[in-house]
Amino acid sequence: MNSIRSSLDQFMKNKDWRRRYEELREEVLSYPKIQTFQQEHPEVTEEAMENNMMKLFEYKRERQNCDTCPGLKNCPNMMQGYQPELYSDTGQLTVRYHPCRLKQQADEQKRQQSLIQSMHIPKEILEASFDDIEQDHASRLSASNACLKFAFEANPGEDATGLYLHGKFGVGKTYMVGAIANELMVRDISSMIVYAPDFFREMKQALSDGTVQEKMDEVKNAEVLMLDDIGAETTSAWIRDDVLGVILQYRLMQKLPTVYTSNYDYDELENHLAYSQKGGIEELKAKRIMERVKHLTVPVFVDGKNRREM
Ligand code: ADP
Ligand code: MG
């Protein structure tokens, strides 16, 4: 009697398990990405699919997390930032994991940051968005429109045209640069925000530890380079001609856009660049650099109140 009872239990359990399995199988096979995979890989047999149902189930669960991606920090996948991919090796079905777009961007940023110390991404800038830019002023509206247009249309490798954001201290120039960087990220275009005074200081130090070239290469090749607060530093002829000049020339050739922010307008920056620390006046060299900057940027005047005093 006892043994009949237990086999009956077993039978019921089995039935339950079967039903659940069938449900999962249905779910897995109707997942659009799995259906697309099957269409694209007719060499993967029904049998191979059936034999790998648990793998496929795992694929679906992880890939669905990506479909509703909550950001890298909140990534619920088994390996944070890794996305599964179905792969057919002559009919053998496997699931491979590779770093997702967000993870790749974050890794790249980490690598750059370890090389360029003056690369800065302040937290508030990371959160900067065009939605939060107050349109309290007519010039502010046209400034944020110009930035938005750039963020939507920038085409590194094809067009070197950037922006020159100028205006008083504290009006939100750096903030706008952050909003541009975030918008570009959505378009899968990376940008490097460098605080110019720190960067130039860092380059001078790099002379003594022999890292000038690798640092230069990194900045020269940024898809979109943002030189924040140019003109706030004391310049030297070396910085002007052999750092800034060389970077700009290279970016012009490679058609890579550069965005500047400055408290100075074009003429004031030219004046600033003409005076080197040593007191000499080199107007021609400053003019040459500024001609390049002007040619490759759209000037944007940012007006408004000083937000740092609010
Ligand atoms: P600038 O670079 O022109 O000197 P910042 O971009 O540093 O000015 O802005 C000054 C302060 O105001 C910063 O603390 C910045 O975070 C804040 N800020 C600027 N624009 C906005 C904005 N639209 N919304 C919220 N905070 C802003
Ligand atoms: Mg600033």
What can you see in these coordinates?
The protein is of the alpha/beta class and 310 residues long. The chain is built from 13 helices and 7 strands. It has a 5-stranded parallel β-sheet. It has a two-stranded antiparallel sheet with strand order 1-2. A hairpin with a 2-residue loop joins strand 1 and strand 2. Helix 7 (138-153) runs parallel beside helix 8 (173-186), helix 11 packs parallel to helix 13 and helix 12 runs antiparallel to helix 13. The mean pLDDT is 87. Magnesium ion binds at residues 173-174, 228-229, 261.
Name the features.
310 residues, alpha/beta, five-stranded parallel β-sheet, two-stranded antiparallel ribbon, 13 helices, 55% helix, elongated, binds adenosine-5'-diphosphate, binds magnesium ion
Describe this structure in a few short sentences.
By secondary structure, the chain is of the alpha/beta class. It has helices at residues 2-30, 32-40, 46-51, 53-67, 101-115, 123-126, 138-153, 173-186, 196-209, 212-220, 237-254, 266-274, 283-295, and strands spanning 82-89, 92-99, 162-166, 191-195, 224-228, 258-262, 297-301. Strand 1 and strand 2 form a beta hairpin.
